[in-house]
Structure formats: C-alpha cells, structure tokens
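User: Round two. Same drill as before: sequence, then structure, for each protein.

Assistant: Same drill it is. First protein:
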Amino acid sequence: MPLGSEEAQAETALWFYGAGGGYGDAKKLTIDSPENVEGATEMQKIINQGYTEPNPGSTNRTPLLNVFIQGQLGMQVGLPPTVGQIKDKNPSLQYGIAPIPTKDGSPFTLGVADHLMAFKNKTDKTASIKKFLDYFYSKDVYSTWVKAEGFLPTTKSGADVMGSDETIKPFLDLLPNAKFYPSTNPNWSAAQGAIQAQIGQLGQGAKPEDLLKSIQAKADGQ
C-alpha cells in the first residue's frame, strides 16, 4: 500500500471508489464522504494487521512495484506497463492479473489519461489538425503507438486491435468501468496535494474520519 507522495491519490482512490465513494466531480469534491471514510478505515485495518509494507506513508509506488517484479512481494496494484517491465526484467516470474476488489463486487478500475492540447492563433489550421488527428487515431497507427508506450487505447477501434494480446486484455475489459480524477474541478490540485501529503498518516494511527475532514478542508481552501 504505497501511500508516499508519488501516487498516494491513486492508491487511495482504489479504496474510496471500491467502497462506493470517490473524489467527486467537476463541481464538488467529496473527500470526507461516509463511503470514503469506510474505505480509509479498511486501509488502516489492513495496515494495522501487518499485511502491508511496514511504512506505507513513506513508501512510493515505483520502488514497491520493483520489489513485486523481483518476485519478493505477493500482491501489488499495478498498471499495464508493469506487464512489459516483468517481461524485460524477470520473464520467469509466475504471476496472474486480477480485477481490483470492491465492496459489492462491482467492476472498477482507476482511469488516468494524459491530454493532447491545441492552442488558437491567427491562422486557421482546423483542417490540418483534423487530418492529423484522423491519421493518428486510425486503428493501425494508434494501436502501434500505444503498444510501444505500454499503455491502453482510448478508442474502441484501438481496443479491438489490441484485444488479442492476452496480457493486455484484462485491462481492456475493465476500461468501460474506469473512474477518473475530477481534474476539471479547480480545487482538485489542492485536494491531490493534501492527499499526497497526509493520507499516509493512516499508518500512524490517525482517525480516518478526522484525517479526511482535514484533507477536505485543504481542498476547499480552508
């Protein structure tokens, strides 16, 4: 359970959404919802029972994934590029891929997407931009690029092409159930920073309800 600053908001999201909660939407953040408190309580319970690494709050995801790839860790939440890293670094590793567990068994995965941005200027280049995007997202060109990066496609045609890869298919099957960060909420950046800085306190005995209220206050600018 890597709750260090690298990707604490991602690890936490798994438990929040898994408990039926989440971070909210573009208009309202819901860090301290009852469902999230339940998720955080489960996180703390597992930490206290000794099922995680000793110091979750100071452990980052990348080093912990490296330990898993070396075959020295029983279970770890990973991502599609992890499959390629295992192939390169420890191809003899015997492992399986399973869905993220949720409270009611409903399918869920955390979706993270980068953004391609364009800026207006005095010259109208709409036709050229459209021509480029149509080419880039054509199934053969796009799927080749995505495979090289080790990530997942954002188009159905790309998913159809890549669906024959058995190492990627479990991730593709979950894409329709992906939940994303409320990144268009103007307070999300503050919320993410507060989660990265504070959520590791679950491993130091902080009361989940009080901790999430503190994070909510930071997200609200209080």
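Second protein:
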Amino acid sequence: MNISNIPNIKHTDSGNFFLLAGPCAIEGEEMAFKIADRLMQITDDLKIPLVFKGSFKKANRSRIDSFTGIGDEKALKILQKVGAHYNIPTVTDIHESSDAALAAQYVDVLQIPAFLVRQTDLVVAAAETGRVVNLKKGQFMSPESMKHAVQKVLDSHNENVMVTDRGAMYGYQDMIVDFRGIPTMRQFATTVLDITHSLQQPNQASGVTGGKPELIETIAKAGIAVGADGIFVETHFDPAHAKSDGANMLHLDYFEDLMKKLVAIRQTINQF
C-alpha cells in the first residue's frame, strides 16, 4: 500500500516513517485536541506523516467495570472533528461487523484489533467500506500467517491494507517482539510496529493490564533499524490517570525527543 492513499496524510515525500499516534481511548474533546495539537506541532516540525489514533470504544476489557467509552457516536464525532480541524487522517479500532459502516462515516482508517484479526466477517466488513484497513497481528499468530488476513482484504476488492506487529505472547503475562517478523510481513503488506502494546503485561491478577513503558525507546529504535514502514504509539499527557492502558503509554512530554531520535535513525537507514 502506498501511504499516499491515506486521505489528507502529509509529508509523504520526507523519507520518514509514518506514524499512528494518539490516546488509547477518546475520553473527551478537550483531551483529544490537547494531544492532537502537540502531535501536530511535533510531526510538522519533523516532517513525519501522521494519522491521529483514538479508540471510540474499548470492547475487549478484562473487567466489567473497566472504562469502555464515552458513547460511540460522541467519540467518533470527536475524531472526525480532530481530523477536520487539523486536516489529518484518523484511525480507530472496530470490534463488530456493524461497527465498520458506522466508524467509516467518521474516520479514514479502520483498525482490526489483534484478538480479532482472524474474524473473517469483521475483516471483510472493514474492507468493504473502502477505508484503509490496519490489521493488528494476533499475539498468537506467526508473521507468515498474517498474509492470509491481508488476502481477505485484497479479495474484498480493497488494496489499501497494512499490518501492525504488537508482539507475541510469552507465557501468560508478557509480550515479546520478534523483529524477524517485520521484513517477513513487509513482503506482503506495509508494516507498522506498535511500540506501546508490544510492551504490555496482560492478564494481571488485578484485571488491569500492566506494561514496561521504560522500554518504548528501545523497541522503537530497533523497529526503525530493521525497516518498519510505520510506528504505532499511544500517548497521553497524564498516563497515570488515563482511563485505558495508561501503564504502557508514552508520556506526551517525551514524545518529541523520541521522534527526533527515530528520524535520525531513519535518515541513516535511508543511506543504505
């Protein structure tokens, strides 16, 4: 997929990786705009193509009392408003086939969660909207097997598909990134590395996912070094009080420094 096919994406001629970035979940309009505004400043300065990310609902929570959203259409309208205000593309994840047509009215990229990437009806429903489809690699799947998920999108007459690696399960409560998978998946689709979910520690006794955000920079540098086309990162100005996945998000204050380092690595890689 040529990333220029993503509507309103900027800086595609910069030679940089592209970025899917934003909060885990849309908690409200003010927080979404606060994060988007800072991301725009950083990515415009560094010439990084940006897709703003935010989940309109969180359907795959461990506990019934976990935050799931502020209301589907309310959150989707906030994403639409952010996209229109900054003239940038937006991405959100969907969990049921009926979500596809709804979300496609408001965002430019539909993301299939890792747990659901083998759900044929869901993948096909996303593809048939004509929106760009981002398939997150199942934690239980090999890189090679993701070609079949990609083929489902292609067979649905949609060539705008990418895959995102978010690590593989190691035991019950840890995630490991096998960097050999990035060149493998790049053979059949544009490939992104999720540098925050790859550091999750799921299945905690508390029912709240943990993480190792101190390793975000390490994972990100390695991903760029081995040729990832894009980087996926969740960020928040107050991760400790974020309503979803705060344990593995990157603090917004550290975002610019990390992007500068990754751009420098990408510039070096481009010379070879």
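Helices lie at 29-46, 72-86, 97-104, 120-128, 146-155, 181-186, 216-225, 255-269.

User: Perfect.
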